[in-house]
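Q: How would the structure tokens look for this protein?
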Amino acid sequence: MARLKRTDTLLAGKATAEGTRGYEQRFSSAHEPDFYRPFADGLHVSSLGLGTYLGECDDAEDQRYAQTISLALRRGINLLDTAINYRCQRSERAVGSALRSSVASGAVNRDEVVVCTKGGYIPLDWCPPNTREGYRGFLQSEYFGPGVMTPSDVVAGGHCLTQRYLADQIGRSRRNLGIECIDVYYLHNPEQQLEVIESAQFRDVIRAAFTTLEEQVSRGAIGVYGCATWQGFRVPPSSRNHLGLEALLEIAVEAGGKGHHFRAIQLPVNLAMAEAARLPTQQLAGNGLVPALEAAAQLGVSVVGSATLMQSQLTRSLPAELGAAFPGFASDAQRAIAFARSMPVSVALVGMKAAEHLEENLQPAVAV
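A: Here is the predicted structure in token form.
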């Protein structure tokens, strides 16, 4: 079985408002009316996005992902989400392989597909080292030796947001994905830094990171940027790892002016983790504390909901009462997806690497 590789021959172009609306028009008759939704920079995206977090680090899993992604692009899904550290960079390469082959075959155009990835965690390459010594050797040869970062730049054992490191990671992600422009680039769990540094220093770290991302936008390497978090936007301001969306936007203005490109956030939105909708964690000037989804709407930031099925935990054994609350669905997975899509989000992400799961997850959105 062929290994999916990174490439230095990059697919030109990026997602555009015209391209994504054209994609929506091609598939709109196959889906219910609210399946496509507005997103950052005038893009239109499928409200079911394909995630690539879970899976083994092997060639067979790469092929399953690539095949499912190719099918998804032909079935009306045009937002693909990954991260450089997912499956030792293999998920990015699977996304890239599927996208390039789909463009080459004429199934989609590059400007119709929104490709999202993340940087912050130090990614392994192909498979984890067998020993701790092997990991230290990997860091030395890939990062410390070439001067991409220093040991003191690494936070919490494997997280880094320095400017040189982020520039390096964007270049690696572009080669993994085989595309000139990453449409959405997220800082991956930036709240990880707050486990080690204080808030004043954190603000400096984020300002420097955003400055780098604005430079990457200017170069055409990324389209827009934001933060993909696990806890940051869901926990109250009293929590050490809390992130304030309004404060992040203020830093974006400092880094890129009023025309900055901070346009999207990603955070868990699911039946078991509904804090984004119900818990007031975000301070807005003049409005007090409001939930993260409300804050994003007021501030004009697009939202992508992650962990829609909570890593498959919401695909079975849900309370019987949910059947009445979400009638007409054939499975708990469909009910969980319906809940996430009922929230004020542009996209609900679901990890999919099998055609049968893709079809099951799409079925409720199919026009009748």
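The longest helix spans residues 199-219.

The domain at 33-132+159-365 is CATH 3.20.20.100 (TIM Barrel).

Upvote if useful.
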